[in-house]
TrEMBL record:
<feature type="domain" description="Glycosyl transferase family 1">
    <location>
        <begin position="183"/>
        <end position="341"/>
    </location>
</feature>
<keyword id="KW-0808">Transferase</keyword>
<feature type="domain" description="Glycosyltransferase subfamily 4-like N-terminal">
    <location>
        <begin position="15"/>
        <end position="170"/>
    </location>
</feature>
<dbReference type="Pfam" id="PF00534">
    <property type="entry name" value="Glycos_transf_1"/>
</dbReference>
<dbReference type="InterPro" id="IPR028098">
    <property type="entry name" value="Glyco_trans_4-like_N"/>
</dbReference>
<protein>
    <submittedName>
        <fullName>1,2-diacylglycerol 3-glucosyltransferase</fullName>
    </submittedName>
</protein>
<dbReference type="GO" id="GO:1901137">
    <property type="term" value="P:carbohydrate derivative biosynthetic process"/>
</dbReference>
<dbReference type="InterPro" id="IPR050194">
    <property type="entry name" value="Glycosyltransferase_grp1"/>
</dbReference>
<dbReference type="Pfam" id="PF13439">
    <property type="entry name" value="Glyco_transf_4"/>
</dbReference>
<dbReference type="GO" id="GO:0016758">
    <property type="term" value="F:hexosyltransferase activity"/>
</dbReference>
<keyword id="KW-0328">Glycosyltransferase</keyword>
<dbReference type="InterPro" id="IPR001296">
    <property type="entry name" value="Glyco_trans_1"/>
</dbReference>
Length: 379
């Protein structure tokens, strides 16, 4: 099958969508598909990567005439399916949707982010203007949590499947027996971009409150991996509360470094309330680490309370969950044992690829039979 992926952001930029799309491209190529990528992200020339780039402030991955460029590319390449990847708001990606519909090509749209109330209002407005929910498109998203707000907007007019993000589980599976030395500090880990929307300073508050609820004779330490614009605020918070002795901010890690870190971790924390999936939390789960996360986030698709970790709906719930796991070594070890001994299946690449192929077939049938929606407007 000839597949064209369209994404605002792609390598060499590093982020959740960029890495996931690149892994999907590799997995589909290894399965025998002919896969190409169209992106507005500048970078080196790579085989099969079409960079449709314009000079924009702050190197924003947007092209003012992207629809025309993408339409010409699709007309020339004639892929069997166009797979578009969007965040909350992704202008270039949605230009790809319009171009694919105008070219009469099957199109699948994957939404990688949570639609908040403002985003939902925006998409309702765009539907009123362009009627996009009437186009012949198939939708997917990465979790049940991310699906709910999309369904609230589309009201059943766009078929929507949940297809998990993919992970090479074997690469994260721990080797050797889990052991903890007596008196060793309980190691709490978080991995993610230090951006304000991820609330990293709130994570530090969570750790501080958890430390206050744990007896002093139980040592704690935390490693928060990542970089971003909130790093300065985090460093100031650490200094103001005397946390530098037990909380470290080592910056960005490679995948291999993260694997090594998780092998020595006791608890993984993913506190963002609007996490559409949580690939870092999935990696921790695959590595055997108990996960603490929001019950209303996408992490709840693969973490059950008391089984793979602990979930909470509020900030105080998360504080109690972290403190409980630090205090209760027996619970921590039971969850660790379960995570190490229980295979992940839904998030493995064979299952993810099968899910997308089902969606591709649905989109191709819709175009072939003309049973769904209408053509995109020419303007």
């Amino acid at each position: 099958m000839r597949i064209l992926h369209v994404s605002d952001c792609y390598l060499p930029r590093l982020g959740g969508i960029e890495v996931q799309v690149a892994d999907l491209v590799r997995s589909q190529s290894a399965s025998g598909h002919d896969v190409e990528v169209a992106t507005a992200t500048p970078g080196e020339r790579l085989p099969g990567v079409h960079r449709i780039v314009a000079r924009m402030p702050f190197d924003l991955p947007v092209h003012p005439r992207g629809t025309g460029h993408l339409l010409r590319l699709m007309t020339a390449r004639r892929p069997d399916v166009v797979h578009v990847h969007t965040g909350a708001v992704s202008p270039f990606a949605w230009m790809g949707v319009r171009a694919a519909v105008r070219a009469g090509l099957p199109v699948v749209v994957t939404v990688h982010s949570m639609w908040d109330p403002v985003t939902r209002a925006l998409y309702r407005g765009l539907d009123a203007v362009f009627g996009w929910t009437g186009w012949r498109i198939a939708g997917t998203t990465v979790s049940q949590a991310a699906a709910r707000p999309i369904r609230a907007v589309t009201a059943g007019r766009v078929p929507l499947d949940v297809v998990s993000n993919g992970l090479d589980v074997s690469a994260w599976r721990p080797t050797g027996e889990f052991r903890r030395e007596p008196g060793e500090a309980v190691h709490i880990v978080a991995v993610g971009r230090l951006a304000p929307r991820k609330q990293p300073v709130r994570l530090l508050r969570l750790l501080l409150e958890a430390r206050r609820r744990v007896p002093r004779e139980i040592p704690m330490r935390a490693t928060l991996v990542g970089d971003g614009p909130a790093r300065g605020s985090m460093e100031r918070f650490l200094r103001a509360h005397g946390m530098q002795r037990w909380v470290s901010l080592p910056g960005r890690y490679s995948r291999e470094q993260i694997r090594e870190l998780l092998a020595a971790a006791d608890v993984f924390v993913a506190p963002a309330p609007r996490e559409s999936f949580g690939i870092a939390a999935l990696e921790a789960r695959a590595a055997g680490v108990p996960v603490v996360a929001r019950a209303q986030s996408g992490v709840a698709d693969f973490v059950r309370p008391g089984k793979e970790g602990l979930l909470g709906r509020t900030f105080d719930d998360l504080v109690r969950a972290v403190a409980r796991l630090v205090r209760d070594g027996e619970l921590r070890e039971r969850i660790t044992r379960h995570n190490r001994e229980t295979d992940l299946t839904r998030c493995t690449w064979p299952v993810v690829l099968a899910g997308f192929e089902h969606c591709y077939e649905r989109a191709r049938n819709a175009v072939a039979t003309g049973t769904k929606g209408s053509r995109a407007p020419e303007h």
